[in-house]
């Protein structure tokens, strides 16, 4: 509505995406840390934080957790993006975007950004009780239908259908 349908249709719409279970743990730890000095560290237990993050407040009808992804990918329930940059494959998906647009950037490697330890005691899975993991899956079901991330596959990009 802001830019008009004709202009919107001509634009390349790009956003980034991350495994929702991993993204939520990262957000929790960011808030607990004081957001790099931007606020006082939050001292809230994980389960309480997650429940609040997944709860649907009044107004826009999406949770704090969904607001990190959903408004950037879906409008009125319709997927609107032309390209996704996957956190778990930054190099590959950014290279694909460069090839698609013909825009080149200086070479860089993001290998250290998204490498994940896959032992449960070292990754996001250790935060979740089974019912919490299932609830995240339910909240992000529309996204997971298109980008089937797996709770038990830290660091692996989804195989896009």
Would you mind describing this structure in some detail?
The two termini are 29 Å apart. The chain has 8 helices and 4 strands; from the N terminus they run αβαααβββαααα. With 161 residues, it is mainly α. α3 runs parallel beside α7. The model has no long low-confidence stretch (mean pLDDT 84). A two-stranded parallel sheet has the order 1-4. It has a two-stranded antiparallel ribbon with strand order 2-3. 40% of the residues lie in helices and 7% in strands. The radius of gyration is 17 Å and the shape is globular.
Tell me, rounded to a whole number, the average pLDDT: 84
What is the number of beta strands? 4
From the alpha carbons, calculate the radius of gyration and give it in angstroms.
17 Å
| Secondary-structure-derived class | mainly alpha
The order of strands across the largest sheet is: 1-4
N- and C-termini, Cα separation: 29 Å
Descriptive key words:
globular; 7% strand; single chain; 161 residues; two-stranded antiparallel sheet; two-stranded parallel sheet
Topology:
Elements: H1 5-10, E1 14-17, H2 20-32, H3 46-54, H4 70-73, E2 74-75, E3 78-79, E4 83-86, H5 90-101, H6 111-114, H7 130-139, H8 141-146
Parallel strand pairs: 1-4
Antiparallel strand pairs: 2-3
Q: In summary, what is this structure?
A:
The protein has about 160 residues and is mainly α. It is about 40% helix and about 5% strand. The model has no long low-confidence stretch (mean pLDDT about 85).
């Amino acid at each position: 509505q802001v830019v008009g349908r004709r202009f919107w249709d001509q634009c390349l719409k790009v956003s980034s995406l991350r495994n929702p279970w991993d993204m939520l743990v990262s957000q929790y730890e960011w808030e607990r840390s004081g957001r790099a000095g931007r606020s006082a560290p939050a001292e809230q237990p994980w389960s309480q934080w997650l429940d609040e993050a997944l709860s649907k407040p009044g107004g826009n009808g999406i949770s704090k957790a969904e607001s990190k992804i959903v408004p950037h990918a879906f409008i009125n329930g319709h997927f609107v993006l032309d390209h996704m940059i996957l956190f778990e494959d930054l190099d590959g998906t950014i290279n694909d975007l460069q090839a698609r647009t013909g825009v080149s950037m200086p070479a860089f490697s993001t290998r250290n950004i998204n490498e994940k330890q896959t032992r449960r005691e070292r990754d996001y899975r250790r935060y979740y009780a089974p019912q919490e993991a299932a609830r995240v899956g339910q909240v992000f079901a529309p996204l997971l239908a298109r980008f089937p991330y797996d709770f038990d596959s830290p660091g692996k990009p989804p195989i896009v259908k």
